[in-house]
Amino acid sequence: MSNPPLLRGVHHCHIQVHDIEVALAFYRQVMGFDIVPELAFWFEQQHDGPLMLQDQAKSICLALFVGDKKSNGIAFRCDALAFVHWQQHLHDCDIKVTRADHQVSWSLYFRDPSGNVHEITCYEYEAVAELL
Question: Could you give the CA distance from residue 49 to residue 39 in angstroms, rounded to a whole number?
């Protein structure tokens, strides 16, 4: 058996949402995502097509689907300073956050408006501990 070819990261994650406008506002205002213009036609022209979003760095894409299914959520990665800033940002956005000390990493858990649980995680354990 041959070795699998090299992967270059995750392209996109599927997220089920109840209300596309509420979800779009959340992912724009809270998470800093925006619509991928060249892929907007999937949502606009297809009955069940996703609304594709990307982060400011254009390194993470989300595919928003309208539906009643639950998604498993996404774990976003950040550095220590950003972790502390995310904690404050989510608090400023009136989003309930649970912080977890995993002994080798720190995580912030929160829900989007459709109830999907997401995570922001940082493996710069000591640096986060000093900043908290």
Answer: 10
Is the pTM for the entire model greater than 0.85?
no
Range of the domain at 45: 10-69
- State the Cα–Cα distance between residues 62 and 126, nearest whole angstrom: 30
Q: What are the strands of the beta sheet with 106-111, ordered from one edge?
A: 75-77, 117-122, 106-111, 98-101
SS3 assignment, position 44: helix
Residue 76 has pLDDT above 60, yes or no: yes
DSSP letter, residue 131:
H
* Claim to verify: residue 19 and residue 44 sit in the same structural domain: yes
3-state secondary structure of 45: helix
- Report the sign of the C-alpha dihedral through residues 119, 120, 125, 129, in that order: negative
Same domain membership, residue 27 and residue 54: yes
